[in-house]
Amino acid sequence: MYPALFHPQVYETDMLPRTVWSEGVALPVPNRLGASIRTEVAVIGGGYAGLSAALHLARDHGIEAVVLDAAPIGWGASARNGGFVTLPAAKASAEEIIARYGEADAYGFFRTQADAIELVRRLIAEERIEAEPQGDATYEVAHAPSAVAGLQRTAEIYRHRFGLDAAFLGRWAFDAIGHGGTEQHGALRLRGGFGLNPLKFLLGLEAAARRHGAVVHADSPVLSWAKDRGRHILETPDGQVSARSVIVATNGYTPDDLQPALANRTIPALSNIVVTRPLTEDELAAEGWRTVCPVANARSLLFYYRLLPDRRFLFGARGGTSGSPREDKAMRAWLERRLGEVFPSWKGIETTHFWNGLVCLTARRTPAIGRLPSDPTVLYGFGWHGNGVNTAPWAGQVLAHAVAMRSGGMLDLPAPYRGLPMNLFAPAVRKLALKAAYLWYGLTERG
């Protein structure tokens, strides 16, 4: 059962979102599990993390893997996001991570985040995935003069303490290569990141996993989970999987009754996107738009946006606490209004798509990757904080390696990833925390 956090339509797995990514793309026919099977590893979740785990298990380690997803492949967050390959997968700032975990573990965290970006680039090349990579950097824009100093400090930390190719560009320097608008006061440039088509990347991972021997069953939710004589028994509506190990990779869509040790550990949050019709050269010039790189701003409830290969403009933001049809209608209108306020020349421009989906936060504001202390044959990865396009495939690779090593011990990871985050006890607590955060950000940030 999904946590009682949002309107039921958020969890309706038979409703595929109408995204710009799905236009002209053939989704795989669901291969629903209809028998009792045995395997070495069962992977619950057919998004980036789960498919990457299955791919690396089969390709790199020769280990049998079966993926179970409750919905069609391409239904969840891996096909609903904005296609940003960037870092970090955390809401805690670089300064906070250094203060909390120490210099060495902070360095390790950010270096593995950079490795994750390179893994995506490598998977696209090695598996010949037509993911439409776009750009050679990502930008974080100062939305107000008060945000400049913080981005300057972050750029210094990235460059001098973590060895990342980062720099802060003043307002006019960024205007010359990026964009103008009312909320542009300079930007942090991070080399190496890029944009892609997230659905095509996901489908490429799915095809690669199957090509290398993994089995993928969609429309096959896990209804019950027991253990019998050292093996995990996962029951689906029409079948059963018996496995030695289980990898849980369900992120913001993790059911509370899937695995007791994982219940109430995630904080799902809605992220919303509108996409415009294709923009003309004159319209782009009116806002000084010059980049194909993905951009986000420094707001706590950030805007994220990018120009797509066909010149449509994608504009997204966190927000909403129910996901009901009424709230969705209001959220679309708000996004359209804010798009016109940030880029005044585009006020009233037609939008052709609106959709949303769940990102996954944790109480500690960093990801969680590891083994269950109570059962080392159960591994997990979640909490990508909106940057799962790179972190989730990397986590899948890490979890596959951990299964192959059969050590049963703690994964050798930097401290920000290690261990389960705080148990928040009940869905109501998580929803209250989310509403309180939105209220606080609304009071402290204009717009």
Automatic annotation (TrEMBL):
Residue ranges of every copy of the FAD dependent oxidoreductase domain listed in the record: 41-401
Annotated GO CC locations: cytoplasm
One Gene Ontology MF term: oxidoreductase activity
Superkingdom, taxonomy of origin: Bacteria
InterPro entries, sorted: FAD-dep_OxRdtase, FAD/NAD-bd_sf
Entry keyword set: Oxidoreductase
Keyword Oxidoreductase: yes
PANTHER family per the UniProt record, alphabetical: FAD DEPENDENT OXIDOREDUCTASE DOMAIN-CONTAINING PROTEIN, SARCOSINE DEHYDROGENASE-RELATED
UniProt-recorded name of the protein: FAD-binding oxidoreductase
Organism: Prosthecodimorpha staleyi
